[in-house]
Amino acid sequence: MSDIPGPAIILLSGGLDSATCLAIARNLGFGPLYTLAFDYGQRHRHELVAARELSRVMGAQEHRVITIDLRQFGKSALTDQIAVPKDRPPEDLSQQIPITYVPARNTIFLSYALAWAEVLDARTIFIGVNALDYSGYPDCRPVYIEAFEKLANLATRSGVETGEKWFHILAPLLHLTKAQIIARGVALGVNFAMTHSCYDPTSAGLACGRCDSCLLRKRGFDEANVADPTHYG
């Protein structure tokens, strides 16, 4: 990777993981940085405001929001009329794929990022997935990231013409706990008060404090011994 830094795309949801990922990309010397968010019909659209502001404050060259409508397919508590699970015990958070899983979401997001990367001649895409403190999503696992990176190099003109591993999908948080991610973000100057993680916020954008994402976030700040700046409703 020593010869790779250059332009990079960061999938920026507005949550603490993706904000830390953006800070890591900047710290590693990638640039210019381009951030990409998605308005996909999610109920927690307050994260889009957070993503835009994080991108601006953290010095990205350009921020884009792609509008797609995954509500057409539904079957997720984030895009359908299904209750978001609340107050699940810690031992249950990664035991099975929860109803907040959005079918094929990361594959869709990475595909858009890959298309933009070809246009920008950017070889690197950052994604803030995590395989330890996460809610059981299949598209947050190392095997998935490896598979998509292989696809990226098979399915693009840049990958085929160079005949080498041209695109890199970097997931620097993959093997970190939520507490470790928070500690890393703090060390890199991330303002976590700007981030938004809740799956079911109030109309004013206050976090519910009870969904899986809020519970993991709360536990992460507690274990990292960092004050939680989140405003809960």
Quick recap:
The protein has 233 residues and is of the alpha/beta class.
Specify Rg, calculated over alpha carbons: 17 Å
Give the class-level CATH name: Alpha Beta
Structural class, by secondary structure, is: alpha/beta
Alpha-carbon distance between the termini? 44 Å
Q: What ranges have pLDDT less than 50 throughout 5 or more consecutive residues?
A: none
Q: Please name the fourth-level CATH homologous superfamily.
A: HUPs
- In CATH, the topology is named Rossmann fold
CATH architecture: 3-Layer(aba) Sandwich
What is the oligomer described by this structure?
A: single chain
Shape: globular
Write the layout of secondary structure elements.
Layout: E1 8-11, H1 16-27, E2 33-39, H2 46-57, E3 62-67, H3 105-120, E4 124-126, H4 142-154, H5 157-162, E5 168-170, H6 178-187, H7 212-224
Parallel strand pairs: 1-2, 1-4, 2-3, 4-5
